[in-house]
Specification:
There is one protein chain. By secondary structure, this protein is an alpha+beta fold. It is about 20% helix and about 35% strand. The chain is built from two helices and four strands; from the N terminus they run E-E-H-H-E-E. The protein has a four-stranded antiparallel sheet with strand order 1-2-4-3, with helices on one face. A hairpin with a 3-residue loop joins strand 1 (about 5-15) and strand 2. The longest helix is centred in the middle third of the chain and has 11 residues, at about 50-60. The protein starts with 6 loop residues before the first strand and ends with a strand. The relative contact order is 0.25.
């Protein structure tokens, strides 16, 4: 996202989970790039390892949560993280 872009973060709680939404007004990604984001070692960064999102998704999956990415080229990206609530 360039300097003039906008980043917003919001959260909401339901009966059994918390949703965190992160949205930007950057350049967005093509469907092909979005499909590759959770493949180990896939990266578009010169010095990236391609493991960051893979590890995050596996952690969320292991506790019953999820990580979703919705992106449109030229229209930005929205990431939704769902984390289950555990009541003791």
């Amino acid at each position: 996202m360039d300097r003039d872009g906008r980043l917003s973060i919001s959260s909401e709680r339901s009966a059994d989970s918390v949703l965190i939404k992160i949205k930007d007004t950057g350049q967005g990604m093509s469907p092909e790039v979005v499909k590759g984001l959770f493949i180990p070692f896939f990266t578009r960064k010169e010095n990236g390892t391609g493991l960051g999102l893979v590890v995050c998704k596996r952690i969320l999956d292991s506790c019953g949560g999820c990580l979703l990415i919705d992106s449109q080229e030229g229209a930005g990206t929205e990431i939704t993280i769902q984390i289950p609530l555990v009541l003791i």
